[in-house]
């Protein structure tokens, strides 16, 4: 997993481990830290935008790779560095290791530059010979997330009755959908 120690990545890891207790996770991040502690989880400190640095830390065999790195930014260069570059590294690793699938989280709600870039990344990743499993949620909530955005959940639930692009999504549902798409044959 590139990223993977954040809110959504931790939920995916926990749920995947419940489904497959033999799964082993290599979670690559700039910090190398993770709240999850399990003998099947290996936290690796590396720059997720640097292919060579990431590959040096990986095992010889990889079945799946997911990219959880991403954030909006007003600075176009930072937007690319935080979103596009990790996706490119994921794709290069996926094709080099011939993984079964790549996983990516897009977004339907947020700054236009961010959602547009996420949508373009999905289109670019779909051109790879490696299968892409992607989800494009709106506001993700649940599992204790409490910030300014989650205060909007009641309003967005109501608005979601009229537009699916506004309906908030439980983090457990996002994780389940992504895992299901990743492992489908």
Describe the structure.
This protein is an alpha/beta fold and 185 residues long. It has one domain: Rossmann fold, CATH 3.40.50. The protein contains 6 helices and 7 strands, in the order H-E-E-H-E-H-E-H-E-E-H-E-H. The strands form 3 sheets. A 3-stranded parallel sheet has the order 3-4-5, with helices on both faces. A two-stranded parallel sheet has the order 1-2. Strand 4, helix 4 and strand 5 form a beta-alpha-beta unit. The longest helix has 22 residues. It is globular and about 50 Å long. The two termini are 20 Å apart.
Can I get a quick summary?
The chain is of the alpha/beta class and 185 residues long. The protein contains six helices and seven strands.
Topology (SSEs and partners):
Layout (H helix, E strand, L loop, with lengths): L6 H13 L5 E5 L11 E5 L5 H6 L7 E4 L8 H22 L3 E5 L6 H14 L6 E4 L4 E2 L11 H7 L9 E2 H13 L2
Parallel strand pairs: 1-2, 3-4, 4-5, 6-7
Helix pairs in contact: 1-6, 3-4
Share in β-strands: 5-15%
Query: What is the CATH class name?
Result: Alpha Beta
Number of helices, where a helix is a run of at least 4 consecutive DSSP H or I residues: 6
Count of discrete structural domains:
1
What's the architecture in CATH terms? Answer: 3-Layer(aba) Sandwich
Mean pLDDT level? 91
Pfam family, one: Epimerase
InterPro entries: Epimerase_deHydtase, NAD(P)-bd_dom_sf
Protein name: Udp-glucose 4-epimerase
Organism: Agrilactobacillus composti DSM 18527 = JCM 14202
Keywords:
two-stranded parallel ribbon, NAD(P)-bd_dom_sf, 15% strand, 185 residues, three-stranded parallel β-sheet, Rossmann fold
């Amino acid at each position: 997993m590139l990223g993977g120690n954040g809110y959504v990545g931790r939920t995916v890891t926990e749920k995947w481990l419940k489904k497959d207790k033999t799964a082993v996770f290599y979670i690559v991040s700039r910090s190398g830290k993770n709240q999850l502690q399990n003998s099947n989880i290996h936290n690796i400190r590396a720059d997720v935008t640097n292919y060579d640095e990431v590959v040096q830390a990986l095992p010889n065999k990889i079945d799946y790779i997911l990219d959880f790195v991403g954030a909006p930014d007003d600075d176009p260069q930072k937007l690319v560095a935080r979103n596009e570059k990790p996706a490119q590294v994921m794709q290069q690793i996926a094709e080099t290791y011939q993984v079964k699938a790549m996983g990516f989280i897009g977004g339907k709600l947020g700054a236009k530059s961010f959602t547009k870039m996420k949508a373009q990344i999905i289109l670019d990743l779909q051109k790879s010979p490696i299968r892409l499993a992607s989800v494009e949620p709106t506001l993700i909530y649940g599992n204790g997330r409490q910030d300014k955005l989650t205060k909007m959940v009641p309003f967005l639930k109501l608005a979601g009755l009229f537009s699916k692009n506004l309906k908030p999504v439980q983090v457990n549902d996002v994780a389940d959908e992504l895992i299901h798409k990743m492992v489908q044959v």
